Amino acid sequence: MLDYITSYLKSDLTPGSAGNLFWAFVYIVLIFLGLSVAVIAMNWLERKILAHMQVRLGPMRVGPHGLLQPIADALKLLIKEDIMPSAADPWVFWSAPLLVVITAFTVFVVVPFGPTHAVTDMNIGVLFMLGVSSLSVLGVVMAGWASNSHYPLMGALRSSAQMVSYEIAMGLAVISAVLMTSLNNEGTGTLSMIGIVQAQQAQHVWFAFKFFPLGLIAFFIFAVAMVAETNRAPFDLPEAESELTAGFHTEYSGFRWSLFFLAEYSAMIAVSSIAVTLWLGGWMRPFPNALNGETWDLVFSLVPGLTFLLLAAITFYSTARMPKHPYFKVQTIGLGGFGAVLALIGVALFIPPVRDRVQDIFWFSAKVAFSMYMYIWYRGTFPRYRFDQLMKVGWKVLLPLGIGVLVLTAIAGILF
Amino acid sequence: MAPISTLHYLVVAAALFILGVIGVLTRRNVVIVLMSIELILNAVNLNLVAFSRIWGLHGQIFAIFVITDAAAEAAVGLGILIAFFRNKETVNMDEVDLMKW
Amino acid sequence: MAPVATTFFFYFLSALTVLSGVLVITRKNAVHSALALIVSLLGQAALYLMLYAPFVAGVQIILYAGGIMVLFLFVIMLVSIEKAQKEEQFNQQWLVGLAAALALGALFVLVYVKGRALFPDRGILMPEQSNTQQVAVLLYGNYMFTFEIASLLLLVAIIGAVVMAKKRI
Amino acid sequence: MTDRTTIDRTTIDRTSHLELEQHDKTFLDSNELIINMGPQHPATHGVLRVVLKLDGEKVLGTECVIGYLHRGVEKIAEHRTYTMFNPYVDRMDYVAAVSNGLGYCGAVEKLLNVEAPRRAQYIRVILTELNRLASHMLWLGTHALDIGAITPLFYTFRDREEILKIFEKYCGARLTTHAFRIGGCSYETYDGFEREVKKFLDFVAPKIDEYEELLTTNRIWVERTKDVGKISARECIALGVTGPVLRASGVKWDLRKAQPYAAYADFDFEIPVGENGDTYDRYIVRMQEMRQSLRIIDQAIGKIPDGPIMAKVAKVMKPPVGEIYHSIEAPKGELGYFIVSDGSTQPYRVRVRPPSFVNLQALDMMVRGALVADVIAVIGTLDIVLGEVDR
Q: Which of residues 235-254 of A touch D (CB under 8 A)?
C-alpha cells in the first residue's frame, strides 16, 4: 500500500496517466477544496476591488476588513428558504444548477497546474475542456425554461444564443494555438493541455508572443470570447440586472442559487486556466526567453515566498492601522493572526524542496489570478452591450478575425 | 463475466436503433420524432466506432461524417418544424399532410 | 493507462444509454425527452472513450450535446409545447410500428447469432496517444474530398435552415 | 391568424393604441410576448410599471401604468394655507426639491404681486443651480447603471454628497429642503457659504471631466446610446416634452432665457442643444448643462448683493381672487404651477405641470421598434422621478 502511494511521487506523470487511483482521488479532493477556497476568496476580492474602484470600502463589518463576509454569505444562503415556483418543472428545476456545477468542476480534471500536477492528461484535453464547458449552456437553458417565467426564459434564450455563437470564435482562437504546438521537428501538434505547455517550453516563448502580433490577436479573441462565455460584464446580458432582473436564475434562491454562483466563478477560473495554458505559458515563469539561466531561475523561484511576505506586510500594516478601541480588539487580533499565517506560508515557500515543488502551481495560479482581476476590472469599467451589438461583435468582428489569424498562423508556421 | 467484446457494443447499438425506430414510427410530436432520428444515427455511430476497433480508424472518420450529417439534418429539420409550426400552430406529425402552404 | 473496471463501466454506461433512450421516446414533455437524449449522448461519448476513440468522443460532446441539443432545446422553447402535451402522444399506427421494430430486433438477433464469426472478439487496441493524429491524417488524406463535400452539405443546411425559419424573405 | 406586418422603425405606426389582449401564445410569430416590467423592477427608477409587448426582443409597444406613488399632493393643497403647502411640493421631485420650492414660491409671489429681494433671488439661483447639478448627477449615475456601467453611480453620489452638505448647512435638510419661503428665503446664508460654494465649484469641475472620461468616448456607451430613443423636435413639441429631452432634439428652449425668473436675467450662460435627439445627445446636453450651472453659480457667488432676504408678506396670506400660471426650468423640464385663488387663505385649486409626467408620454414613441435593452436606456434618459409623475 505504502509503495503504491510513494511510487507515484517519483514518477513524472499525472496520476491519471500513471493509473494511480489513490493520488488521482487526492488531486480531485485538493482541486475541489482549492476551487471552493478560490471562489470564496474571489467573492471577497471582487467586492473589495470593485469597492475600491468605486471609492468605497466594501465589506468591512464581518471580520477584519470583511474577511469573513463570504463565509457569512455562504451560511446565509444555506440557511435561506429554498423556494421553487409552483408552476416550475420540478425535475428540470432541480437538476439545472447541479448540471451547471458539475460541468464547471469537471473541466478541472485536465487543468495542468504543473507538469505533474493535474488529475489526468488527456490527449484531447482542449477538446474535452471546450466540450464540457459548452455543456453548461444546457444548465442555463434548463434553468430558464424550468422556472416557467418570462424573464428567466428570455435570459436563457439570450445566453444560449450568446454562448453558442461565441464558442465558434473561441474554437478558432484555440485552433490557432494548437497549430503553434506543431512547430517542432516532427511537425506533430497536440491537444493535450500538458503537451501544449511543454511545446511552449520547448519553443521558449509564450504563445501570446509567438508570431507577433498573431498570437496576441488570438489571445485577444479568446479573452473576449471567454468573458462572453461566462456571461460576465460587459457581456452579462443573460443576467443583466437592470433589464431581466437576474436573468435565468431569477426564480432561484438559497442553496440552489449559490450553486449557480459557485458555477459561475469556477467557470471563470476554468476558462482563465485554458487561456493561461494556451497562451500565457501555463506553469512557466515569466520571460522564459529573455531572462534565462541559473541566476534568473533562482531569482524567479524566490517570487512566491516574497509575494506572500508582501501580502503579510500589507496585512500587518492594516493591523497597525486598526482603531485602538476595545471594540476592535478581536478583529485586530484576527487580522494580525491572518498576517502571521501569510508570513508563515511565505517563509515556508523559501525552503528549497517546497520552493521547487510549488513554483509551477504558484505561477499558474498567479496568471489565473491576473485574469480574474481583469474580469473584475471589466466589470467596473464597461457598460453593457445590447443583444444585437453582442451578436455583431461575435459574428462580424471576432469570427473573421479568428479565421484570419488561423490562416496567417498556418502561413507563418510554414514560412518560419 | 465475459470480457467486453465488439458484439456487446453491437447489441447496445441495436437496442438504440430499435428504440429510435419505435420513436419515429409511433410518436406524434415532430420534435420527438426528430430526436428519435438522432438516436438512430447515434446507434449507427456506435456500430462504426465499435468496428473501428477491429478494422482500423475508418469507422471513426465515418462517425464524424455522420455527426456532421446529423447537425445538418437537425438544422434543416428544425427549420422546417418552425415553418410548419408558424403555419399550423401545432407540432403534431399527423398534421403534416400538405406538400405546400 | 490500463482501463479500470471495464466490465462494470460498460454495463453501467450502456444501461444509462439505453434507459435514457427509452425515456426519449416515452416522455410526454419534449424538454424531458431532449434532456434524456443528452444523457444518452453523453453515455455514448463515454462508450466511445472506452472504445479508444477519444476524438470522436470529444466531437460527440461538443457537437451533439453542446450544439445540436441546444438547438433542439431552443426550438422546443420557441414552439409551445403545452398543447402538444395534452394531446394523444402516440399515433394510430403504433401497433404497426411496434411490430416493425420487433421484426427489426428479430433480424438483428438473427444476424448476430448467425454471423458471430464475422465479429472477432479480439480487439486491436488502438494506441491511445495518437488517435487524434491518425484521425487527422485520414481525414485530410484519404477522405479529403468527402470532407469538402461535408462542408458543402453544412453550407446548404445553413442556407436551408435560414430560409425555412425566416418569417419572410 | 393575426396579420403579420413588418415591424421596423420607419413603417411602424407610432400612435396606435397598444392592444394588450390580442396576442398569440408563443413568441415565435410577430406579435406575441407580453412582459410586465415593474412596478418592482431594478431599472424603472421607482414604482413605474411598463407593460411591454414584445416580438422576441423587439418592442412593439409599451403601456405605462402609473399611480403607485400617488399621494394626492394637489388635493392636499386645497386644505392647506399657501404657506403650509410649501413643504409638500418638496416631496414631488424629491431629487430636485429646491426647484419645486422655487416654482411654487414664484407662483404664489406672482399671485400676491410681491417680489423677493435681490439677495434672496441670488440665493435662490445658487441653490437651484446646485440642485440642478445634484439632480443631473443622480440621473447620470442611475442612467449609467441601467446601461451597465456600475462605477459612475458611486462617483456621482460622492460628489452629490458635497451639494447635499451645503444644503444641510443652509437649511438643515438634505433632500426635502424647504429652502424658500413665499416672499424670499427662510434663512440667511451661513458664515462661509460663499467660500464653501466656491470650493465646491473648484472641486466639481474636474469631476465632471472625470465622468466624461469614463463615458463620452467609451465605445460601448456610444453604441448603446447613439440612435437610441430618437425623437424629433416636432414630436417633442407635439407631446409637450420639455427640458434636456427637448433641447437634445435641437430646440433652443430654456425658460431661464425665454422668460427669465428669479435673477437669471443677470447671468451669462448658454443653452446647450443637441442635434439628433437620441440618448447620446441627451447625455451630452445634460453634461453641458452641468458645466453651465457651474458658470451661473460662479457668477452669482461673485456678485451676490447685500440686503434683506424677505419681502414684506402678510402673515396670513389672502391672495386676490384670480388664477396664475408660473413655470420654471426645473432640471427635468418645465415645472409649472397653476394656482386658482378664491380669495381665502387656502388655494381653490393647485395644478402642477410636472416635467417627468409629461416627458414620460414620449416613452412609447421612443421605444417602439427598439429592443428591450433600449427601453431601459430610454427610461433612464427621460430622467423621471416617480414622486413627480404620480404626485
A: 236-237, 240-245
| pLDDT for the residue numbered A416 | 73
Whether the ipTM is more than 0.85: the answer is: no
Residue D94 CA to residue D391 CA, distance in Å, equals 11
Domain spans, chain A: 2-302+350-415
For chains A and B, having 3+ Cβ pairs within 8 Å is answered no
Q: Tell me if B47 is assigned to some domain.
A: yes
Rg (CA), chain A: 22
Please check whether residue B9 lies inside any domain of the structure.
no
Same domain, D58 and D180: no
Cell numbers for A397, please give them: 468582428
Q: Which residues form the domain of D270?
A: 73-390
Pairwise CA distance, residues A46 & B17, whole Å: 51
- CB contact under 8 Å between D376 and A234, yes or no, is no
Residue A62 to residue A78: CA distance in whole angstroms? 17
Q: What is the pLDDT of residue C35?
A: 86
- Cα–Cα distance between D219 and A384 in angstroms, integer? 11
Answer whether residue B37 is part of any domain.
Answer: yes
In what helix (H) or strand (E) does residue D63 lie, and over which residues does it extend? strand D58-65
Three-state SS for A277-300 is HHHCCCCCCCCCCCCCCHHHHHHH
Same-domain pairing of D211 and D316: yes
pTM, to two decimals:
0.83
CA dist., res. B4 & res. B12, Å (int): 12
Q: What is the mean pLDDT of chain D?
A: 83
C-alpha cell at A200: 511552449
pLDDT tens, residue by residue, A128-153 = 888 888 888 888 888 888 887 777 88
What is the CATH classification number for the domain harbouring D235?
1.10.645.10
Overall number of domains in chain B: 1
Environment class of A236 (CB within 10 Å of its CB; exposed 0-12, middle 13-18, buried 19+): buried
Task: State which residues form the domain around B64.
Answer: 30-89
Any CB–CB contact under 8 A between B47 and chain C?
no
Instruction: For D266-307, write each residue's pLDDT tens digit.
Output: 888 888 888 888 888 889 999 989 989 988 888 888 888 888
Query: What is the tens place of the pLDDT at every residue in A378-396?
Result: 888 888 888 888 888 888 8
Residue D271 CB neighbours (<10 A)? 17
Among D2, D4, D23, D28, most B C-beta atoms within 10 A, so best to mutate, is D28
Q: Measured between alpha carbons, how far is A41 from A266 in angstroms, rounded to an integer?
A: 12
D345 versus A123: which is more confidently predicted? D345
In a domain, B49, yes or no: yes
Are the C-beta atoms of residues D264 and D125 closer than 8 Å to each other? yes
Q: Residue A414 class from Cβ within 10 Å (0-12 exposed, 13-18 middle, 19+ buried)? A: exposed
CB contact under 8 A, C167 and D30: yes
Does D96 score more than 80 pLDDT?
yes
Q: Of D12, D34, D65, at which residue does a domain stop?
A: D65
Q: How many residues does chain C have?
A: 169
> How many Å lie between the alpha carbon of D29 and the closest alpha carbon of chain B?
7
From its phi and psi, is residue A66 left (phi > 0), alpha (psi between -120 and 50) or beta?
Answer: left
* Greater pLDDT, A212 or D84: D84
